[in-house]
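seq:
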Amino acid sequence: MGFLFDVLIGIAAVVILAVIILVISVFNGFVSKRNRVQDAWAQIDVQLKRRYDLIPNLINAVKGYMTYEKSVLTQVTQLRTSIMNGNTAAKADANNQLSQALKSIFAVAENYPDLKASQNFMNLQQQLMDTEDKIAFVRTSYNDYVLDYNNALQEFPGNVFAPKFGFKKAEFFQAPEEQKENVKVDFSDVNNTNAGKDKPSIQPKSAKK
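struct:
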């Protein structure tokens, strides 16, 4: 009888130890995955800050040429301010809108030969385009880490422990479908011999005519 009792105690101890190891493993897994998400988000923030610092120089470079595009320049300025505030979803939305607005500026610049000839503008354009590419790259990495982290929270045994440990789903950094389309700039009404004196029409590619 005593031997059987010792066996049961031994089995119970092994089970308890296994549960403790499982809980520690799951918890550490959550922490590791969450840290990767946070690190990837920090990389996005670095690129957003870099673009934030470049935009005032871009506005100064183009505002003397783009007399008729003040609304676009104003939008860029407002989005620049809002993009550094708010949660992930708010930043993602502001980022997507800002990317579209910058595309509009670069497209309109095609109608201003003097502006296109400006080395300062060309350098700023290249730096901002490079930054856009980097944002797209780190956004992909961030979303991959978010997917991995969220899956861990929702799959067994993570879904059992996540609420108890206080781990919550992370938000993806992504563009709404309508903001993934390229910007279409229509210069059909512009007199090529008198560039810059007529207002180009800027509209989303999907806009109804």
